Amino acid sequence: MFHQTIVKYCVRVTQPPFMLGLVFIAILFGYWPTSVSLIERWSRFSEAYGHGLLVFAGVCWLVWARIKEISAKSAAPSTFWASVSIGAAMSWVLAGWIQILIVQQMMLPILLYGSCATLYGMRYTHPLLAPLSLLYLIIPVWNILVPFLQQLAASAVGYLLTLSGITAHITGYQIRLPAGTIEIASSCSGLNYVLSALALSGLLVVWQRLNLRTAFLIVAAAVTLGVATNWVRIYLITVAAHVTEMEHWLVRDHHMFGWCIFVILVFPALYLSLERTTRRESSPILTPEQRKSDLIPRPAFLLVCLFCCSLPMASLAIYAQLSANPDARAMVDAIDHEASRWSALTSASTWKPHFSGADYELLADPPGSNNTVFTAVYLSQTQKSKISLYSNAIADPALFTTLDSRSVRLNEDHCSEASRTTLKDATDQRRVVIWWYQTIGGCATSLVSLKLMQLRSLAAGRVDASLRGGSTLCESDDENCEIASKLVLDELSTLTLFEHL
């Protein structure tokens, strides 16, 4: 009796629905840094991806509903998807080592589907492809649309105001009224409404199994209404501001107002489209006996899934070991020892590079010099403390305006190119900054080339990176700034400090 019970449960555990659920959980927990980063982004309900948790719940429900309709007779392991899963896992590791979070997030849906298809093949898992594809609507890759949506909204609202007889001047993303100015900020671009409409229509299309033509029309209509929601919102706020001379409450608090317009415009349209379309006949829900399969996943394909699930932990352990490289720590100690003999920063300027989370920072005037030398060293790279962090900048944009940025030649064997940036503060005082990124793999002047240099550094067993450079004040004409930049370059080439970096 006991033996029969064990056999019964072993058969149940090896059935596709149970195995697929186990794979889903293993992938989400195995790649926990990416899962946590997405949940954190989805939890910011006032941002464009605040609907992410609801969409993820809808995707999980659709996947579960599809699994109950699939006959296991078509299940067969797939070598192709095993290769895709391994490639996606390796890409995740590589992106993690050079800190490209968006690539890691985009690999997650591929790993979820690829691991399932590895065990049972695409013929069996094909119905899961459409629901899992919806996850890309809640991965924060759509911010590239923000400038376009801002410009579109400014032009559309300007046209509506002209039709209404309201005098307004459109300058960039600003609407200038006689009583004040309304700015269409990046958070007011309407991306949240567009993505929400796209996600709702996508869930509806997958749920109702609509044909391609009908699905395209519904999604296009939903996206159009999502864009129109923001136009109507900004237009009504602008009218209220014009009538009340910027005193209306909508000018100060209009977040929920936009969602009310969204519900009024989008929800009825989706309901009407649902009523007027003919859905495909769904497959009947199969009984457990009909879903039962004698197929036991082959050990080789199980090992592929196990490899994909365990690879993140192994890569994190290796990265932690590389971050503790004694050569990198010795480099920082050598810099600190030499810089301790220098004078403190004497410049009266408010200029200071902003590189948060650095393990070591230096901003000082070398003895007998009119120039300022700076460096920021990162011994390791994490999502919240890395040299390529989005908020890092050579100067505070609120205090300085960038007048010019160009490449210049360096007189160093290990680094031949740097970036020269000319800044201007509120008093029209100019400052020349010569800077570059440095890794063991080489130097770079852009984030793209920095990532490539970090790959070369990984091959050498190092993950540290640093920003280095020098700066000085210059007169208010280009010729004097050119002379000042040459003086900075000459001094940087003679400093023994940078030999340690």
What would your notes on this structure say?
This protein is α+β, with helices and mostly antiparallel strands and 501 residues long. It folds into 3 domains: 2-140 and 293-321, no CATH class; 144-276, no CATH class; 324-500, no CATH class. Helices cover 54% and strands 13% of the residues. The protein has 17 helices and 10 strands. It has helices spanning 2-13, 16-30, 32-42, 52-67, 79-97, 101-125, 129-133, 146-163, 191-208, 212-244, 249-252, 255-276, 288-291, 299-323, 326-339, 447-459, 478-494; strands at 169-171, 174-177, 180-183, 360-364, 372-378, 401-409, 417-424, 430-439, 442-444, 465-474. The strands form 2 sheets. Strands 4, 5, 6, 7, 8, 9 and 10 form a 7-stranded antiparallel sheet that branches. Strands 1-2-3 form a 3-stranded antiparallel sheet, covered by helices on one side. A hairpin with a 2-residue loop joins strand 2 and strand 3. The radius of gyration is 29 Å and the shape is flat. The protein starts with a helix and ends in a 7-residue tail after the last helix. Residues 6-11 have low confidence and may be disordered.
